[in-house]
Specification:
Layout lengths: L1 E2 L2 E7 L5 E7 L12 E7 L6 H12 L3 E8 L1 H11 L3 E6 L4 H14 L7 E6 L3 H10 L3 E4 L4 H16 L2
Parallel strand pairs: 4-5, 4-6, 6-7, 7-8
Antiparallel strand pairs: 1-2, 2-3
Helix pairs in contact: 2-3, 3-4
Length: 166
């Protein structure tokens, strides 16, 4: 399907719910002509939110459009990401659910065909080994405690540019 410069992808859920994803066609607004748009969330029931709120402010101050959800489960995060037409899905985990819920998030994104149209990043406090596992399961950006503003902002910009060819 096509609609005003967008390719329209229909996704049907087993519950009968249908969503439509609008993918920008070539020749229309480029990433360089608009702000990077992110959705950030605390993964699962983790209540340690100071870090993700700080990162949200850093990204906003760098000129990005940030939607902060607070606590959310993988399907909720993806539903909002689709509704808001984001470029980046970022999650934070400090309570040990990063591997389990992070994999659920990426598996759901793959099932829904979103891995090619969004960048997936994760930050939090986890071991170097877990950071490597998070990259292995498909997170494109992995940030641990101590990552600087410049490291995070530059990385997000580079990941978006690489994925969307801007």
């Amino acid at each position: 399907m096509e609609a005003a410069g967008f390719l329209v992808k229909e996704i049907k859920f087993s519950t009968g719910f249908i969503i439509y994803i609008f993918l920008l066609q070539k020749g229309f607004t480029k990433m360089a002509d608009r702000k990077i748009k992110l959705v950030l969330a605390k993964l699962g029931l983790d209540v340690h939110n100071r870090g993700v709120i700080t990162v949200a402010k850093m990204l906003r101050d760098a000129g990005m459009e940030v939607i902060y959800l607070g606590n959310a489960m993988p399907k909720e995060i993806l539903n909002i990401a689709i509704q808001e037409h984001v470029d980046v899905v970022g999650v934070s985990s400090l309570c040990g659910a990063h591997l389990t819920l992070g994999k659920d998030l990426l598996d759901d994104a793959e099932t829904e065909g979103l891995k090619c149209s969004m960048v997936f990043i994760i930050g939090g406090i986890f071991s170097i080994e877990d950071g490597d596992k998070l990259k292995d399961i498909g997170f494109e950006g992995v940030y641990t405690a101590g990552a600087t503003r410049d490291e995070i902002v530059n990385s997000v910009e580079e990941l978006v540019s690489k994925k969307f060819g801007t």
